[in-house]
User: Which sequence fits this backbone?
């Protein structure tokens, strides 16, 4: 079946560097994408989202880029800090699941980001 | 706002025992989701409720798993009998989504770490 996947399972960066986390998706019908951050012992936390009619969206220190041509999503974190160390998941929403229409999230496997002081 | 509340945070039980996980969604949220997270399979949606009604339970592994939502502020996920392969972190999430195809943000609880010996 179609799924969301990640290219890199781990990423190590120095404090202050910019980080880029990548995600590939295979379902061209997906119309909404979300990045979640999960710290150890906690549940996933919403970071930023983007709709399929956009190619870029910026938040505070984070930017999400969407390339629908190659079905690629990325999360850029500027001036990475030790507190950014976590597992990052991309997720897609399939607007329709069978006969039921709702926002069903499909998560990728996650990328471990480690920030060294 | 207290966020999504889950209990217990940790549960250790023996194979064959009944396990009940509890969730209190964010007040005013209409949708509730149960997820399971394992190293092998990542985050998987088990069941989705909207306005206390189960909408999609296609992710429930087998008949040993059951979920209820008797009112808007409480849901349970029960495993009976439990097996070692059920060991995982179980997350509850809620959103404002009213049942239509929706991209309302899902807010996750801290999870329940279940260990079945």
Assistant:
């Amino acid at each position: 079946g179609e799924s969301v996947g990640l290219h890199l399972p781990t990423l190590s960066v120095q404090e202050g560097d910019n980080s880029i986390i990548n995600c590939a998706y295979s379902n061209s019908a997906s119309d909404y994408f979300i990045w979640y951050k999960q710290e150890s012992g906690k549940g996933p936390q919403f970071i930023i989202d983007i709709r399929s009619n956009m190619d870029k969206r910026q938040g505070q220190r984070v930017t999400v880029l969407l390339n629908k041509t190659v079905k690629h999503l990325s999360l850029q974190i500027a001036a990475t800090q030790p507190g950014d160390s976590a597992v990052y998941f991309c997720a897609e929403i399939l607007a329709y699941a069978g006969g039921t229409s709702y926002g069903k999230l499909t998560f990728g496997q996650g990328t471990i980001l480690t920030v060294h002081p | 706002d207290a966020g999504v509340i889950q209990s217990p945070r940790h549960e250790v039980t023996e194979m064959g025992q009944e396990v009940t996980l509890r969730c209190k969604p964010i007040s005013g949220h209409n949708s509730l989701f149960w997820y399971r997270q394992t190293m092998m399979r990542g985050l998987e949606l088990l069941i989705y409720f909207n306005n206390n009604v189960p909408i999609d339970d296609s992710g429930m592994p087998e008949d040993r798993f059951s979920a209820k939502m008797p009112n808007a502020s409480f849901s349970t996920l029960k495993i009976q009998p439990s097996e070692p392969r059920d060991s995982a972190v179980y997350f509850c999430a809620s959103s404002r989504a009213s049942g239509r195809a929706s991209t309302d943000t899902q807010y996750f609880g801290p999870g329940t770490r279940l260990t079945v010996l």
About this structure: Chain B touches chain A at residues 4, 31, 33, 42-43, 45, 48, 50, 55-56, 58, 91, 93, 95, 97, 99-111 (CB under 8 Å). The CA atoms of residues 36 and 44 of chain B lie 5 Å apart.
